[in-house]
Write a structure and sequence with these properties.
It is built from 18 helices and no strands. It is mainly alpha-helical and 357 residues long. It is globular.
């Protein structure tokens, strides 16, 4: 993915240098998808919007369903539910009008992912079932093209459709579960883990998930790693291994918090609550949020905090809005005292600074 990202970055700059407005829409579409996978969701959103703007400005009607699909995909991951639904609906309409079937497939995959993220297993299964049938009919069965198999398996597990899960796992194996394709292998591991857990074999489930985590080292996709960690946490909790369960879930929570995966943060917090014991962090803050809160409370600006954590100032501001809601405060001037009250200590030195950043 890093090689692909560098390649499309170069194409992007070359298109800008030569003023190729038509090529920009296509390049930005691919760049946004790659950035979503590698975990740079802020830039993914920026490039998805720019792809749409270039599409509209240059009247690239055929490309419109694709630009809408990547915007919807980013919105769905960020938990912007209404925006994602609107773009999915419009994109599918445009795809039908223009006959761009592959864009329609992408939008159905995003709809299924969104419903699964919201806990709507039946709706997710319905969308992904339609997608699977359409993909099979079209002959475009390559799992890397429309990455819905993992979501389809999770939806069917939630609905108790275990025989259908076995069929999906067989399909993954037939379509290319080889060492050169870590994503397919990871989805197969997660699917077998879910199936084993549903049948009560927690040991087998644990082994599959541990194997998946090893495979993740070859796949630079933090969001998918966090999803695997959530499943591992669930299995460990059910196996009464509370400390290990909490470690896995807190690791997932930190990744989701850093990415901005709001819906998956909520799912992970719910799973952590089932583990019991100590709270994951101050007032329910994720580890990332707590680090940001402490740095801001110490008097650092948005830019200084961003530099310290290797994130953007915009990400700092976005996280602060969540921090304020969780701590029930309205500004950064209240933050030092609120954190001190949580931990029973005095306010951090220098915390009276209220630089706007």
């Amino acid at each position: 993915l890093s090689v692909s990202h560098a390649h499309f970055e170069a194409l992007h700059q070359a298109a800008i240098d030569r003023g190729d407005e038509h090529a920009l829409a296509f390049i930005l579409y691919h760049l946004a998808r790659i950035e979503l996978l590698i975990g740079d969701w802020e830039r993914a959103g920026k490039h998805a919007r720019e792809s749409h703007e270039a599409t509209v400005q240059n009247e690239l009607i055929v490309h419109l369903p694709f630009s809408l699909s990547v915007e919807a995909l980013v919105d769905a991951h960020l938990g912007l539910v209404d925006s994602a639904r609107t773009k999915i609906e419009e994109g599918r309409k445009r795809a039908d009008e223009r006959g761009t079937r592959s864009a329609g497939f992408e939008l159905l995959a995003t709809l299924g992912f969104l419903e699964l993220s919201l806990g709507n297993a039946r709706e997710a299964d319905e969308a992904l079932g339609r997608l699977a049938a359409a993909v099979d009919e079209s002959g475009l069965r390559e799992p890397a093209l429309f990455r819905f198999h993992g979501d389809a398996i999770e939806a069917k597990i939630a609905l108790g459709q275990l025989d259908e899960v076995e069929a999906l796992l067989d399909e993954l194996d037939q379509l290319g579960a080889t060492p050169e394709r870590p994503w397919v292998l990871i989805m197969a591991c997660r699917g077998r883990a879910l199936l084993s857990a549903a049948r009560g074999d927690l040991g087998a489930s644990h082994r599959e998930l541990e194997h998946a985590l090893v495979l993740h080292d070859r796949l630079d996709e933090p969001f998918e790693r966090a999803r695997t960690l959530v499943l591992l946490g669930n299995v460990l909790r059910r196996d009464r291994k509370k400390r290990s369960a909490r470690d896995a879930l807190e690791s997932a929570l930190e990744i989701f918090g850093r990415l901005g995966a709001v819906l998956w943060e909520e799912k992970t917090r719910a799973e952590l609550a089932r583990v019991g014991g100590r709270a994951p962090s101050t007032a329910g803050l994720t580890p990332t949020e707590e680090r940001i809160a402490r740095l801001i409370a110490s008097g650092l600006s948005y830019r200084e905090t961003a530099d310290a954590l290797f994130i953007s100032p915009k990400t700092v501001q976005w996280n602060l809005s969540k921090i304020y809601r969780k701590l029930d405060i309205r500004s950064r001037t209240e933050l030092p005292a609120r954190l001190a009250a949580e931990h029973g200590t005095s306010s951090p030195a220098g915390s009276s600074q209220a630089e706007a950043g």
